[in-house]
Every structure is written in C-alpha cells, then in structure tokens.
Amino acid sequence: MRHADVTMLALARRLVGLVCAAGYAFLMAPLVVILVASFAGRQSHYVVFPPTSFSLEWYLRVPAEYFRPAVTSVGVALAAGSISTALGVLAAFALVRGRLPGRNFLKAYFNAPLQVPFVVTGIVFLQFYYLLYGLTGARLLGTVWGLVAVHVLITLPYMIGTVSAVLERFEVSLEEAALTLGATRWSTLRRVTLPLIKPGIVAGALYAFVVSFGDIPASMFVVSTATTTLPVQLFYALEFDYTPALLALCSLVVVVSMTAIFAVQWLLGVDFVPRGRAGG
Amino acid sequence: MRVRWSLFLLPPLLVSLVLFVAPQMAFVRGSLLHNLGYGQTGPTLTLENYVRFFTDAFYQEALLRTAGLSLIDALACLAVGLPIAYRLARSRSRWRSMWLTLVVASSLVTVVIKALGMMVLLSANGPVNQVVLGLGLVREPLRLLNNDVGVVLGLIHYTLPLVILILFSVVQTIPEDLEAAARTLGAPPLRVMVRVVLPLALPGLVAASLMAFNLAMGAFTSTALLGGGRVLTLPVLIQRKAVLEVDYPFAATISVVLLVSGVLLNVLVLRLAMRLRRGAPAGVVG
User: Fold this and answer.
1) Does position A213 have pLDDT exceeding 50, yes or no?
2) pLDDT in the model for residue A273
3) A218 touches chain B (CB under 8 A)
C-alpha cells in the first residue's frame, strides 16, 4: 500500500471509532443522567445535574400514587403476554405447518397491527368500545380487560414472529423419530417439540411483556384514572413537570426490568435480540 | 394420525378479526362522517374531512413536517448505526457481547423514560448546555427542547438501537472472506466498502431505514414530550383532535392520511431500491 493510503486508512478508522463512541455516548447518556440525578441529596426540589450531594432521599419520596399504576402495568403485561403466547404459538404452528391458501398474505395480515401507529390503534379502540357499548351494553372502556385486549393485539405479532422463526428451522424428522420409537403424540409434543421451540416462545413472551409494559399511545385512550398504567401516569406527569422523585422511580423501573429480562435470558439460555418494530 | 395444523389458526384469526379488522373498518368509516361535536356524528357519508385536510395548509405542513423529521431520523440512524453495526459484527473482542447487550438494553427501555432522560440532558441548565457554555462555544444556552431539534434527537434515540440490531445481523450475513478477497486483489479499503459491503448490505440498509422512518412517522410519546406541544406532527395532532376537540371523524381522517402516505412512501423507496440493485455492476450483487 502507498503511504497516502495508509494515512487515509488510519484516518477513516479513527473517524469510524469516533462515530461509534458518539453513538454509544448518545444512547447511554439519558439513562446515566437519570440514574445519577436520582441519587441527588435534598438540595432543591428541581433536578440539578450533576448533583452536589448524594443520598437515597428521593427513593423514599416516590409518590404513592404510582404504586397502583405499577401493579396494573405488571398485571396487564402478564395477562396480555400469556394470552398472546397461547394465541401466537397456535398461529405459528398453523402458519408454518398448515396447508393454508395465501400463507404469505396471512403472515402479512398477522403482522399488520405493527404497521399501524399505536396512537391510531388507541383511538380506534376508544371508538370501538363506544360503539360496542352502544350496540351491546358491554362496558370495556376504562376496564382492565379492555386494556388487556389492546395489548394482546399489539403483542401478538412479536409472538408469532419469534415462534415462526424457530419453527421454520425445526427438523420434523426429530418428531418422526420420537413417534417411530413409540412415543405418543402428547409426549412427543411435551418432550421433543416444546423444548426445541422454547427459545422462540421465551423471546417472544419477553418482548411481548416489554412492549405491553412500556406502551403509552395505544393505552392512554382506553384507561380510566382507576386503571391507568405506570407509563401513562408518568407521561401526564412529565407533560407538566419532572421532579427528582420521578427520576428515582424511573431508575427503579429501568434497573428492575433490566435485571428481570437478563435474568430470564440467562436462566433459560435464550439469545434474545428483539426484532423490528414497537410503536411508541 | 395426521394433525390438521391449519385448524390451529382459527382462535388467533378470530381474535384478530374482532380486535383488528372490525374496529379499523368502523374507524375508517368514521373518517367519512360529519362531526356534530361532543362525539356525535351525522348519518350520511361525506368526503368533507379529506377536503378539509387537503385544502388547509396547516395540515399539509404537518404532513410534510412529520415526513421530514422522520427522514432526518432515518438518515441519521443509518449514518451512526452502520459503523456501529459493522464494528460489532466484525469485532473479535471478548467485550463484544457486552457492547451488543448495551444496545439491546437501550432498545428495551420504555420511551417515556428515555424522553425523561433527554429532557434532563437537553434542558437549558442541563449537562449538554453546561459543556458547550463551559467550552465557550456559545454565549447563551442552546435551545434543544420544545422544538424540532429535541424531537429529532428523541426519535433517533428511539430508533437507533433497533437499526443497529437489524444492521448487525445484516453485516453478519456478509462473508468476511469477500472483503479479504477484494483487498488481496488490490482494492483500497474505501472501495471494498463501497463496491463489496454496501451493495451486499443494500436490502438490509433499505429495510432498516424504512423501519426507522415508519416508527418515526408514527411516534407519539417522545415527540409530544420533547416537542413540548409546539412540534405538531400527525400523531400528535391525532391525539389532540380526539382528546381536546373530541373530533373523532377528523382524527380518523388524519390517521388514514398518515397510514396511506406511509404505505406510498414505502412502496416508492422499495421500487427505487430494486432499480438501484438492478443497476449495480454485475457480479457484485449476489
């Protein structure tokens, strides 16, 4: 290589390195700032960065009104995640193994809820629940089950996606071998098929939980003050102002959810990289 | 015994027909109704809401602003995401999985918490302004919130980790041997990048940037918070029409325009990408 080429190469390398460092700094900075500022001492009631003193003061002062939304969020995410898991596994088996006319169309159809901005989904459900109430008298608006239904719709595509991906690589001969060796259909399912597709199910369920737990735009129109979720409550609080206590709350949410996610991933040995989209 | 796998589709299909198709159809029909106020609508179908959207410069501006901000977001994500993804995919460092985990972790954090972090970071007396003021780069604090700058930064923070993850798996599918071969044959590094890596990564690049663009077009939370109600994109307008003005037909109209324009732009970009791919030098594209 000529000398000029070598300098150019070094320069390009350095530039790429700089872009990478800047990118990581940008991704991490907001989270680091929240974490650090949440340990501020009681010097003021607004956020000062960097803090001049450190304490756990604000962690003790997380407003009690966030407790109930936090419980609702976890409950709804668990319920919606479980329902999505069941429906998603069924759909994935049908889409991958069934002899379906228009299979590609059906795949696109089941992915379609992610193409609709979640804020639109939220208003669609608001109107749908009004309509349903007018037609049948069933009240879903402002109820937990009304919220769960919305979250099933927006989490189902992830579940179908991850399970289908695993099923497509599945060696059917393994099942045939089990059946030939005298295993029943049920024990083949339980001891061969399920263990092999478990990574897909776990990854999908984790991501469904994350999407459901964090959603604002699809939920904000169908919750009432009694059924509001943690992110929605945070959103309305932030539209007004933020306090160090909210930083403490958010730090808790980040630390607890990350620990849970990576613990599950580590325990079950799932290589968990989320796919594609989540509307926010 | 044969299993009729197709039958398994019935429960999910039924649920999605009830939760997706029926509500959406009712909603789209709603965009063709006359708004009587207080959530009431007239009995006959009309195109007046669409006429209103396309004759009022305010809404066209909002559409252009939404698309423009999303385009900036997509390009920025490509510019920053590709170098990071490339390095991650080609790295042999034992810290690689930690770097990858950081990206995954960032992608899992709820948008509202990210937005809060950005609000602290970018505020008039926040760390960013302290640094630029301290270095004497500016005399007055930069205005980084409640305007387009804050919104774009929020969008990038929201879509960048997802773009990195997609591009990471794209670069992983490109055999490193091809690059080595090109280098052995005397191609300088830049040409290896432009003639070997980029053409092979093109479909992935298009997919990743479209994903970023689509997410940004529909982004509500970060735009509402970091725009401070002053940057009116279509998703923000949809929420305002529905909640503040209780004008559901018009909210539905904006939603339909947002969806249709998104689909049209995607089709356009995909067609352009196909043409670009066909025009690439023979033998480069596998």
Assistant:
1) yes
2) 55
3) no
Nearest CA in chain A to B259: A116
Q: Check: CB of residue B144 under 8 Å from CB of residue B68.
A: no
The Cα of B158 is separated from the nearest Cα of chain A by a number of Å equal to 8
Return the structure tokens found at A10: 């070094």
* pLDDT (average), residues B171-179: 91
Q: Measured between alpha carbons, how far is B268 from B213 in angstroms, rounded to an integer?
A: 13
The residues, any chain, with a CB within 8 Å of residue B22's CB and separated by 6 or more, are: A128
Question: Please, which residues have CB within 8 angstroms of residue A17's CB and are 6 or more apart in sequence?
Answer: none
Residue B23 and residue A124: Cβ atoms within 8 Å?
yes
The CATH code that applies to domain B68-230 is 1.10.3720.10
The verdict on B260 touching A (C-beta cutoff 8 Å) is no
Residue A135, helix vs strand vs coil: helix
pTM assigned to the model: 0.91
Going from N- to C-terminal start, the domains of chain B cover 68-230
Residue-wise pLDDT tens digits, A5-28: 678 778 888 999 999 999 999 999
**pLDDT level of residue A199 (50, 70, 90 thresholds):** confident
Burial tier of A58 (Cβ tally within 10 Å: 0-12, 13-18, 19+): buried
Q: B41 - beta bridge partners?
A: B35
> What is the spatial distance between Cα B260 and Cα B49, in angstroms, rounded to a whole number?
15
Q: How far apart are CA A134 and CA A138, in angstroms?
A: 8
- In this complex, do A116 and B24 lie within 8 Å of one another by their Cβ atoms? yes
Instruction: Write out residues 218-257 of B within 8 Å (CB-CB) of A.
Output: 218-222, 224-225, 229, 235, 238-239, 242-243, 248, 251-252, 255
Average pLDDT over residues A128-149: 93
**How large is the average pLDDT for residues B111-138?**
92
Q: Give the distance from residue B240's alpha carbon to the nearest chain A alpha carbon, in angstroms.
A: 11
Say if B80 is an interface residue toward chain A (CB within 8 Å): yes
Distance, CA of B157 to CA of B221 (rounded, Å): 12
Put simply, whether B67 touches A (Cβ < 8 Å) is no
Smallest CA–CA distance, residue B282 to chain A, in Å, is: 27
Going from the N-terminus, what domains does chain A have, and what CATH number goes with each?
65-243 (1.10.3720.10)
